[in-house]
């Protein structure tokens, strides 16, 4: 179940989704909310993304 990005937690790995001209698309790697943005969990680097919603990351998550 997707949740609004406005209530995304800071303390766990999340699957993010964006809405673009092709519709809703899930980002293919786990992300974590940090002050001022988002990081890619595996490399702990900021990513330039404006997600619209989130759900808990699962290794068997479907897009």
Describe it.
This protein is an all-beta fold and 63 residues long. It has one domain (3-56). The protein is built from no helices and 7 strands. The strands form 2 sheets. The protein has a 4-stranded antiparallel β-sheet, with no helix packed on it. It has a 3-stranded antiparallel β-sheet with strand order 4-5-6, with no helix packed on it. The model has no long low-confidence stretch (mean pLDDT 92).
Radius of gyration: 11 Å
Q: Report the oligomer.
A: single chain
Count helical runs: 0
Low-confidence runs of at least 5 consecutive residues: none
Could you describe the largest sheet, including whether it forms a barrel?
Answer: 4 strands, antiparallel
Structural category: mainly beta
Fill in the keyword field for this structure.
single chain, 63 residues, mainly beta, four-stranded antiparallel beta sheet, three-stranded antiparallel beta sheet, 7 strands, globular
How would you summarize the topology of this molecule?
Elements: E1 3-4, E2 14-20, E3 23-26, E4 31-34, E5 37-40, E6 45-47, E7 53-56
Antiparallel strand pairs: 1-7, 2-3, 2-7, 4-5, 5-6
Concise account of the structure shown:
The protein is mainly β and 63 residues long. Helices cover 0% and strands 44% of the residues. The protein has one domain (3-56).
